[in-house]
Predict the 3D structure of the following.
Amino acid sequence: MIRLAGEEDRRAQLPEVKITPQAIAKFAGVMRDRLRDPSKKARKAYLELLID
């Protein structure tokens, strides 16, 4: 229970993040561009980041 209380305190100190349709569209566009990168290594790295 002590761990949960600490987690709540930490979250209370973080700024509130709002996910807007515009933010989702921007993220999707950036990821689409990254996944079209000609380098197979770069595409794989971005997919791994997304999955993590």
User: Anything to note?
Assistant: The two ends are 27 Å apart (CA to CA).
